[in-house]
Specification:
This protein is mainly alpha-helical. Helix content is 82%, strand content 0%. The radius of gyration is 21 Å and the shape is globular.
C-alpha cells in the first residue's frame, strides 16, 4: 500500500485543527456581552458600547498586525506561525476566564488580535504544499472545516456556559486551541518551504515586483474586502429582521439562531466540491457564479413575507459564499509565487478583517436610516459592484496571461 503524500497528511491534520479552532473562536461569542455585564455595573448604553468595542477591537488589531506576521511566515515558515498563533491564543483565551474588570478583557482581546493568524497560516501552508491543480479542492476543504467549527461553536459554548460557567468555558476554549497547537507541532510537516532571504522582499514594494500581475492580486484583495463587508452588513440585523417578520410572536431567539446558522451549513456542504469543480473548469467561473447568485438572493431577501422564505434564501446564500471567499484564496494561490504566499495571504486576511469591521457598521447605519429590507437591496448592489470590479481587475488580467504566457 502506497503511503499517503505529505500534503494530504497536512491537509487532514490542519483541516481537523482549523475545525477545532473554528469552535474555539465562535463558542465564546454568544455569551461575550453577558460576560461583560458580570464585570461591572453598566447601563444599557454602556454595555452596548463595550460589547461592540471589545468585539471589533480584535479585528482592528489583526488587520494592522497580519502583514508583519505574513513577512515573518515567508522568512521562518508557515508552521512556526501556526504554532505561534495557536499557543498564543490558547494562553490569551484561557486568561480571559481570570479577568476582574472590562479593561482587562479589552486588553486580552487586543492580544488575541496580535496573536491571530492560525487559520490564514494553515491555509498558506496547505496552499504551498499542495500541487497547484489540487489547490482549489484543498482550500475548499479547509474552508468547510473552519465553517463547520464556526457553526458548532455557539451551540457548544452555550451548553458549556450553562453546565459550568462563563469563566470555565474560557478555560476549555484555551484547551481546544492547545490541542490545535499540539496537532500542528507533532503531525504537520512543511517540506517545500524555502525561506525568503532577499532584502528587497522586506518591503511591500519588493513583494509587489515579484508578482506577475499586481493588479490581479490587489483586485482579489479588494474582492475579499467587499465580500466580507457585504456578508457582515447583514449579520447585525438578521435577528431583528426575524423579530419583525414574526411580529414578536414565537421563539425569536431560537429561530434567529437557526437562520443565522443556515448559510454556514450550505458553505460546509459545498466549499470543497466547488473548489474541485473550479480546478477543472476555472476558479474564476465559480466566483462569477457566486456573485450572480448572491445578487439575486440578497435582492429577493428584501421582499420575504415570513421566516420560512428568509431561511430558504439564507441557506442558498451559503452556496454562493462557498463560491466566493475560498475560491478567491485559490486564485491567490495559483497566481502568487510560493516564496511570498505567506505575505499575500496575510494581506488577504487584513482585507477580510477590514470588511468585518465596516460591514456591520454599514448594515446598522442603513437599517437605522431606512429599514431592514433596504439593507438587503443595498447589499445586492454592493455585490454587483464587486462583480464589475472583479471583471475589470481579475478576469481581464487572467485572459491577458492566458494569451501572452
Amino acid at each position: 500500500m502506497n503511503e499517503k503524500p505529505i500534503w494530504k497528511k497536512n491537509l487532514l491534520v490542519l483541516s481537523i485543527a482549523v475545525f477545532i479552532a473554528g469552535i474555539a473562536f465562535s463558542e465564546v461569542m454568544p455569551f461575550l456581552p453577558l460576560y461583560i455585564d458580570t464585570l461591572g455595573n453598566f447601563t444599557h448604553k454602556q454595555l452596548n458600547f463595550w460589547s461592540g468595542f471589545i468585539y471589533s477591537g480584535t479585528y482592528f488589531v489583526s488587520a494592522i498586525i497580519s502583514p508583519w506576521w505574513g513577512k515573518l511566515a515567508d522568512k521562518k515558515g508557515r508552521k512556526p506561525m501556526t504554532l505561534r498563533a495557536s499557543l498564543g491564543m490558547a494562553i490569551v483565551l484561557g486568561c480571559m476566564g481570570l479577568v476582574t474588570n472590562v479593561y482587562q478583557l479589552f486588553i486580552l482581546r487586543m492580544l488575541q488580535g496580535i496573536f491571530a493568524g492560525f487559520v490564514s497560516n494553515s491555509n498558506a501552508l496547505v496552499a504551498t504544499e499542495t500541487p497547484k491543480e489540487k489547490s482549489g479542492q484543498a482550500l475548499g476543504t479547509m474552508a468547510s472545516s473552519f465553517t463547520a467549527g464556526n457553526l458548532l461553536g455557539p451551540f457548544i459554548g452555550g451548553a458549556l456556559a450553562s453546565i459550568f460557567s462563563y469563566r470555565v468555558t474560557f478555560f476549555i476554549t484555551g484547551g481546544l486551541l492547545l490541542i490545535a497547537f499540539l496537532l500542528s507541532l507533532f503531525f504537520v510537516h512543511e517540506t517545500d518551504f524555502k525561506p525568503v532571504t532577499e532584502k528587497k522582499l522586506d518591503k511591500a514594494s519588493g513583494v509587489i515586483k515579484e508578482l506577475r500581475s499586481p493588479q490581479l492580486i490587489f483586485g482579489l484583495l479588494l474582492t475579499t474586502l467587499i465580500i466580507q463587508a457585504a456578508n457582515n452588513s447583514i449579520n447585525p440585523i438578521v435577528s431583528l429582521y426575524v423579530k419583525q417578520l414574526m411580529a414578536n410572536h414565537g421563539n425569536v431567539v431560537f429561530i434567529s439562531g437557526v437562520i443565522a446558522a443556515l448559510p454556514g451549513i450550505a458553505t460546509f456542504l459545498a466549499a470543497s466540491r466547488f473548489g474541485a469543480l473550479g480546478d477543472r473548469i476555472g476558479t474564476h467561473k465559480i466566483i462569477i457564479a457566486g456573485f450572480i447568485g448572491a445578487t439575486i438572493l440578497f435582492f429577493l431577501t428584501a421582499f420575504v413575507q415570513n421566516t420560512v422564505e428568509l431561511g430558504i434564501l439564507r441557506f442558498l446564500v451559503g452556496f454562493t459564499d462557498a463560491c466566493l471567499f475560498p475560491q478567491v484564496q485559490t486564485l491567490l494561490t495559483k497566481n502568487t509565487p510560493a516564496k511570498i504566499t505567506g505575505r499575500i495571504f496575510s494581506w488577504n486576511q487584513s482585507a477580510m478583517y477590514i470588511g468585518n469591521i465596516f460591514g456591520p457598521l454599514l448594515g446598522s447605519t442603513i437599517s437605522g436610516l431606512t429599514n431592514y429590507s433596504t439593507v438587503f437591496i443595498v447589499t445586492a448592489g454592493i455585490v454587483v459592484f464587486n462583480l464589475i470590479l472583479f471583471r475589470f481587475n481579475v478576469i481581464g488580467k487572467l485572459q491577458f496571461q492566458i494569451e501572452h504566457f
